[in-house]
């Protein structure tokens, strides 16, 4: 018991007496640990964060009518979307297409949930406003080129409904949509408006889902939907899913390699600093040996100091590293980062091991030397 | 005498100086590697994002909407609008020619599968086409490199396979077509027998189409030398306010702004330049790809920038820490120098010269090691070399100099303020 108290007193007093040097060492360890925990946190969170960025490419899973049906049933779609984990859904936009006429010229009208479209197709460029409620529509750039309309204009939409009766209704243009794709030839209106015009509801042509998940998970979802819901055929949008996989793998590999390189270099930096701090105490080691201390007890003492330093630095690093990762995540992705609890012990162990090792090497060589030579100076 | 002392210090403390040089080299290599990778990551990720396919669609003026709107590709009342195949090479002569990675022309036609009533969309295209440019260069381009996500059973066509076809999985499924079968296509009075070399699953509308080499489609549709659209894959700069205004109307810009816009690789300026070299063409950015590319590129660059800053700060602190530790350790020596009558400034210069020489040696070694690290990262992640930017050299040099000075000056001052007698006595 007494022996242990003495041991602790020696370690703590050595740390306190040599405050400035120990601060230097502690700082080195803390920097290393900060970089370790910060970079590893970022590395683990990259797929999730970047994956969400990749959702700007739009829908990655679509539901189309299955079997011989020509349309989707809204109830069946609800059943199908039930298979998608709610927390992964970025947006689900249903579409219904009908032919309508403006000034006796035929156009395609798409009824949809425009709030969801905003989420599934963030790349749409709308000049003007997104429609706020019923009665206002978005029109595609190509439609604009054929009939001169600008935001705020009112036009009459006519056609025949499901029962063969003709209708005509006034709509206001709230915005013009540019995508560079086929969407530019459509008139987008709230689904309820189109259903009101056509006189029936619950019928859809296609449902676009934007899901934040890997290709594997999407395949599973598609498989489940295909098996359990008869009238819905799920299809992966290969261009989006496949390419996302390729690019994301590369990005992750990049961050991985960078992390490894940075960690390696930082660890060596920490080790050299620790070595310098310890090497300077050769005289102290010589004095202890001259007083009759055994090599083992000297090594034990230095190791104890190293471990204490490593532990303190590691703890500091865990906190600072998380703060750093959080800053990066908020600046880059505007989202907070998920905390990896496993990183606390990992960082602690690594920093303790590295400081311990870095202390041991110079102490070893110092203890091998004859105390008389060390004490006399080199 | 001064240099002899410096030399003496190096010889006497070889081990310690080596350790400092080594640490500085590590820090410098880290800085050089990270800066090089960071400066090049935009280009590299941009290349990777090309797997999403084309970001510009070139169509003939006025023909853009008929097919999509009514499903009427040709026939009475439709004025046929096409682009000339012979003009496509011009695309590699524009200002940003270097940024055009790939392009593929398409000729669409409606054909009948013999023994079936239904019409199928036939698309003639380049699969992997060798093109000799007017500039004397040559280029290999085509669909195979632009549709990397296609899942092909059988094999991709080559451009010489004029009697072969690739069939979309939905068409194939409906008509029971297998790889190796022969299909007969009818268009008006013209018929052609083709061998099915591959069946593809593209996960989109393309699965409803049959792809053949361009000459075959031109012959079947009787449209020699014409194409109906061109998909272009170009490396672009993310849009900013200027690009957005220019996209609305290039004439609304002042002459100076227009020059900046024209000479920046915005998707809109590349489109504008394509329209200049191809008669009666409209080039449109495919926003789904162009916009998302910009967003992802910006995020990646910002991420790399922050990681670089972290590692630079980390290595800077690490180095100055070590320098401080090694200067502190020389308290006895400095005390002795003072005791024999040396003044403060020569001592400062002596220690600083030693440390700076070490730093220069370490920095140079580290810079080259850093280039090595950058190339390792480039090759293992992107499979291509990282461009070495000369501007990294002054950055690394300044960083190393600052860090060593910041690490040594405060500690030297501290040591000079101590009394020689106390130091020599050992506290």
From TrEMBL, chain A:
Extent of the signal sequence: none
GO molecular function: transmembrane transporter activity
Membrane topology value: Multi-pass membrane protein
Domain (ABC3 transporter permease C-terminal): residue spans on this chain: 257-367
UniProt key word Transmembrane helix: yes
Primary subcellular site in the record, as a coarse category: membrane
Transmembrane segments: 253-279, 306-330, 342-363
Protein name (record): Putative ABC transport system permease protein
Organism lineage string: Bacteria, Bacillati, Bacillota, Clostridia, Eubacteriales
TrEMBL record, chain B:
Compartments where found: Cell membrane
Membrane topology per record: Multi-pass membrane protein
Record's keyword annotation contains Repeat: no
GO MF term set: transmembrane transporter activity
MacB-like periplasmic core domain mapped to chain residues: 19-233
InterPro entries assigned to the protein according to its UniProt record, in alphabetical order: ABC3_permease_C, MacB_PCD, Macrolide_Exporter_MacB
One GO CC annotation: plasma membrane
Keyword match Mitochondrion: no
Residue ranges crossing the lipid bilayer per the database entry: 302-328, 349-371, 391-416
Residue stretches making up the ABC3 transporter permease C-terminal domain: 306-418
Pfam family of the protein (one): MacB_PCD
Keywords attached to this entry: Cell membrane, Membrane, Transmembrane, Transmembrane helix
Protein family according to the UniProt entry: Belongs to the ABC-4 integral membrane protein family.
Protein name: Putative ABC transport system permease protein
Organism of derivation: Sporobacter termitidis DSM 10068
């Amino acid at each position: 018991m007494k022996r242990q108290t003495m041991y602790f007193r020696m370690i703590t007093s050595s740390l306190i007496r040599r405050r400035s040097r120990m601060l230097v060492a502690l700082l080195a360890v803390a920097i290393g640990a900060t970089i370790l925990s910060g970079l590893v946190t970022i590395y683990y969170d990259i797929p999730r964060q970047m994956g969400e960025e990749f959702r700007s490419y739009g829908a990655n899973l679509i539901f189309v009518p299955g079997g011989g049906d020509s349309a989707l049933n809204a109830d069946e779609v609800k059943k199908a979307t039930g298979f998608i984990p709610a927390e992964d859904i970025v947006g689900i936009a249903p579409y219904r297409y009908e032919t309508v006429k403006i000034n006796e010229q035929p156009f395609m009208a798409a009824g949809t949930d425009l709030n969801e479209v905003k989420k599934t197709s963030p790349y749409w460029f709308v000049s003007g406003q997104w429609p706020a409620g019923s009665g206002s529509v978005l029109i595609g750039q190509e439609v604009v080129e054929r009939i001169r309309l600008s935001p705020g204009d009112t036009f009459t939409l006519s056609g025949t409904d499901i029962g063969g009766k003709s209708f005509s209704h006034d709509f206001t243009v709230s915005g013009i949509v540019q995508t560079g794709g086929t969407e530019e030839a459509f008139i987008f209106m709230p689904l309820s408006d189109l259903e009101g015009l056509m006189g029936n509801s619950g019928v859809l042509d296609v449902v676009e889902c934007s899901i934040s998940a890997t290709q594997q998970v999407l395949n599973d979802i598609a498989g489940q939907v295909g098996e359990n819901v008869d009238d819905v055929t799920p299809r992966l949008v290969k261009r989006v899913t496949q390419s996302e996989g390729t690019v994301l793998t590369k990005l992750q590999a990049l961050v991985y390699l960078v992390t490894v390189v940075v960690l390696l270099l930082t660890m060596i930096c920490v080790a050299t600093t620790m070595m310098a701090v310890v090497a300077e105490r050769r005289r102290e080691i010589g004095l202890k040996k001259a007083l009759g201390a055994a090599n083992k007890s000297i090594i034990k003492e230095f190791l104890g100091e190293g471990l204490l330093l490593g532990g303190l630095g590691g703890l500091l690093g865990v906190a600072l590293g998380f703060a750093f990762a959080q800053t990066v995540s908020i600046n880059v992705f505007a989202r907070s980062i998920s905390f990896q609890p496993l990183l606390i012990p990992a960082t602690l162990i690594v920093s303790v091991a590295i400081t311990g090792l870095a202390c041991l090497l110079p102490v070893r060589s110092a203890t091998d030397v004859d105390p008389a030579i060390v004490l006399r100076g080199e | 005498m001064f240099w002899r002392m410096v030399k003496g210090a190096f010889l006497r403390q070889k081990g310690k100086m080596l350790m400092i040089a080594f640490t500085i080299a590590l820090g410098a290599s880290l800085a050089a590697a990270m800066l090089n990778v960071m400066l090049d990551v935009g280009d590299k990720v941009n290349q990777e994002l090309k797997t999403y396919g084309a970001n510009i669609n070139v169509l003939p003026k006025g023909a853009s909407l008929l097919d999509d709107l009514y499903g009427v590709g040709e026939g009475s009342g439709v004025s046929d609008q096409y682009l000339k195949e012979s003009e496509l090479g011009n695309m590699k002569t524009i200002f940003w020619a270097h940024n055009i990675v790939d392009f593929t022309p398409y000729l669409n036609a409606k054909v009948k599968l013999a023994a079936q009533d239904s019409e199928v969309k036939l698309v003639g295209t380049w699969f992997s086409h060798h093109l000799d440019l007017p500039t004397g260069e040559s280029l290999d381009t085509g669909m195979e490199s632009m549709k990397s996500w296609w899942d092909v059973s059988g094999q991709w066509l080559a451009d010489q396979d004029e009697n072969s076809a690739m069939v979309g999985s939905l068409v194939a499924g409906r008509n029971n077509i297998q790889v190796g079968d022969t299909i007969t296509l009818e268009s008006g009075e013209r018929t052609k027998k083709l061998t099915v070399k591959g069946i593809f699953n593209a996960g989109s509308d393309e699965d409803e189409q049959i792809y053949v080499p361009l000459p075959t489609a031109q012959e079947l549709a009787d449209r020699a030398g014409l194409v109906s659209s061109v998909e272009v894959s170009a490396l672009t700069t993310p849009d900013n306010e200027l690009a957005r205004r220019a996209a609305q109307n290039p004439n609304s810009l002042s002459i100076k702004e227009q020059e900046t816009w024209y000479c920046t690789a915005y998707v809109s300026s590349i489109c504008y330049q394509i329209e200049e070299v191809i008669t009666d063409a409209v080039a449109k950015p495919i926003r789904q790809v162009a916009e998302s590319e910009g967003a992802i590129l910006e995020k990646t660059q910002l991420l790399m920038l922050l990681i670089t800053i972290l590692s630079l700060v980390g290595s800077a602190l690490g180095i100055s820490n070590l320098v401080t530790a090694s200067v502190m350790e020389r308290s006895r020596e400095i005390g002795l120098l003072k005791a024999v009558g040396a003044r403060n400034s020569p001592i400062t210069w002596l220690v600083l010269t030693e440390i700076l020489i070490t730093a220069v040696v370490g920095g140079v070694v580290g810079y080259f090691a850093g280039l090595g690290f950058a190339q390792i990262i480039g090759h293992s992640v992107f499979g291509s070399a990282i461009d070495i930017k000369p501007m990294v050299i002054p950055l690394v040099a300044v960083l190393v100099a600052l860090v060593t000075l910041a690490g040594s000056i405060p500690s030297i001052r501290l040591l000079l303020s101590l009394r020689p007698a106390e130091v020599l006595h050992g506290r």
